[in-house]
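Crash report, auto-generated. Payload:
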Amino acid sequence: MREYLKHYINGEWIESTGTETMDVINPATEEVAGRISLGTLEDLDRAVKAARAAFPAFSKTSKEERVQLLENIADEYEKRKDDFIDAITEELGSPRSMSEKVHYEMGLNHFRETARLLKDFSFTERRGGTLIEKEAIGVSGLITPWNFPTNQTSTKIASAFAAGSTVVLKPAEITPFAAVILAEVFDAAGVPKGVFNLVNGTGEVIGDGISAHPDIDFVSFTGSAAVGQRVMENAAKTIKKVALELGGKSPLIILEDADLKEAAKIAVSNVVMNTGQVCTAATRTLVPKSMHDDFIEAVKAVLPKFPVGDPNDKHFVGPLVSKKQWDRVQGYIQKGIDEGAELVVGGLGKPEGLETGYYVKPTVFTNVKNDMVIAQEEIFGPVMSIITYETLDEALEIANDTEYGLAGYIVGKDPEAIKKAASNIRAGQIRINKAPSDFSAPFGGYKKSGIGREWGDYGINEYLEVKAVLGMPS
Ligand code: NAD
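Recovered output after restart:
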């Protein structure tokens, strides 16, 4: 049982000024795995003051010093590999192999890649007599969700440190363990006092407190669209810059020349990864009408390769993160049935033999119409909606008929069709076939999927202000 009852402020673990605590539930066992203290606005104020006090010196450190700092962090992070894997498996229910290969690795990649890109990052540009300088934005408030406990925190923090900005982090209260380990990593790596501060707590108190705080210059939020909107409204009162990474309802277009077995593998693995709790999940699978029946057979054949079960055993799909999330996903499965979509596999209830834990059946619906609720709203569970199309133009129209625009996927061979689809899907990231992740590529959404970009040099730019100095002597 983990007891994380202190906040990390100004380089020290200090008692909360409040007395409220919250249990953290292991979603695979439904048992209490730990406890955190719920911070107060006074705790947040202390953290902001520490970040403000540290800002003048940290923002003037050299690029080389910050590259070294990020490399030290990556080295210390690697030393805590087993701790990260244990924590993420406990708090999120992520299968151990995924906790390692996805969650642990993503966090590490952000620190390493940001350090690499920072070496060549230019903070000044000369245009005749004018000098353009990029300067650290100031104190940055970071609010992160529960579905990737190391990825979202690490990308934001690596970019902030690269830019010379100081931070106050509020991780999701239902998965707070990995962020505590991250704070310990920063401590061991020699991050100067006050540069990184961690305040645990609820969204209503600490999250809201961050977006409203007059001494925070920038808020970077990842989470749901509804809360993102609230963050933006709140931040408007003090005219703070806001970056939002929100939800998605991403299309996966299977082209007519695609290998169906391969396409089914890509589509299924995408939708069950992290038990479907992925903002970029390809939840709408667009299939040529003529290939529909064969595709359904291919999906049925591939699904057993992704077994659901205890995250400590060799399973690919763990439980959902919470009872709340389980109820939400059940509600959407019921909605799909009520709307008249055809259930191919899965459905309501828990998989056989998995009565304890928030397990769901990976579910595939076909004959889905794009205006159905299950095709328009983000479910955040392993639920695939298959929609048929007759021409690529029709597929693109369906793909873009959504209020979101985070990602798009294309599976097939014809380079012309691939290029046409890639340039016409209105989304921030397009993945063709099995293209590997690129930690230097910008990540973020069009439309209601968000504002701004994270990862790599685009991520660093979010934490910078731009100054033009006219008539600067050379
Ligand atoms: P959420 O919006 O409920 O919570 C996200 C964070 O915001 C948490 O830390 C929460 O405590 C905090 N929060 C809650 N109320 C707040 C308030 N009033 N003010 C400020 N902060 C507040 O989302 P979630 O349930 O944690 O995560 C799931 C959602 O996040 C999904 O919609 C998913 O698509 C989205 N998401 C997006 C990305 C992305 O990069 N685009 C990544 C992961 C998750």
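Post-recovery validation: The first strand starts at residue 2 and ends at 4.
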